[in-house]
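Changelog note: in this version the structure field was regenerated for every chain. One regenerated record is shown below for reference.
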Amino acid sequence: MPGSSRTALVFEWIAGWPLWKVFSREKSLASAPQNGAAPNGGAQNGSPSRRWIFARKIRRTGVPQLLDIYLLRGFVYYFVLLTIGFIILFEVFTFFELLDDIARHRTGIIEIIQYFVYLACYLFYQLAPLAALVSVLVTLGVMTKNNELVAFKASGLSLYRVALPLLLAGLFLAAGLVVLDDTYLPFANQRQDALRNQIKGRPAQTYYQPSRQWIFGENAKVYNYELFDPDHELFGGLNVFELDPATFEIKRRVYASRAHWDPQQGLWILESGWIRDFDHGVLTRYTPFLANALNELSEPPSYFNREVRQSYQMTWWELERYIGDLHQAGFDVARLSVQLQKKLSFPLIAPIIILLAIPFSILVGTRGAVGGLALGVGIAIVYWAATALTEAMGAVGQLPPMLAAWAPDTVFGFLGLYFFLRMPT
């Protein structure tokens, strides 16, 4: 539909008048009596005309529900379309990345489908704010290009009122992401991590309790640990069970409160622990130690690396308790503390980034949907880069965890509020 025809329909829809009547009766509407009497053209019996009452009601209450439905319909349409498109795009790239592993380890089709279903849940959580940002830019950008926002302002509606349903949609989206992250998403992340390890042929490990990990090692060993920090190559609360391959009886149990990797010797250095040897279930020797290096513990840190970090496999309360236990044991919990704060700060970026997108959508209005998509991706890249920077600084102790997690939201929130308030309405 041409822009002029579409604008005419918007004028007629909002004001209850055809476009030519709006201009011909603009003067009479402006001089309408304040007691509710209709201007010229009202009902012949002196009662106000229905269309004029509708226009006055809009101007008094500022609650045109049709406008909200019209905006939200476009926003939801683009949001669903972009979310599905982003998820499919990422999953296609992931499929081709895993194609060699799928063929090498002969992974079943059921496991592959399950993996991508659980991965879609994680991708939705990560990409929903980006989809919301681009949806606002495209929706308002197209309306600006077709002069529909001009029709809204000419009908007495400010752009602040036009933006209200979009901001409320962003708040509902943020609340939904918080609920998802505290209910189903941890389980989905655990399952997709286990299935990815199966596709890549990695050793089997548990996923139901991320703070209590069990993983098969080499030469009939089973590792159990409370913490594994791949950045520092450190174990916390490590137990190693050596089994008899024939009878599966425990031959030896090794415990260490800490263990760190020595790259020169290629061994784990165990601290503050003990060794217990068994013979057919009977304890034969008990050896405590302050520091020890066992040649049989030769699995490198890469053997235990996880592609999905533990913080995304726990709810808020589970992660908070996990951090408290590790902190009480003397471990560095800066990285996990940042992740705890991000469980709230990341979903809240949805309404903040929508607030920033509204004034920018007017700037790219002449470029339509393509300009909105390009600008949305650019803003998202800047946000993700800032988040990665502050998160890394918080993980090494350069920033307090709360500041590291909330700094990007604060900066983008102030920028969005500044441009939003300076927007010509």
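Spot check on this record: The first helix runs from residue 3 to 15. DSSP finds 13 helices and seven strands in the chain.
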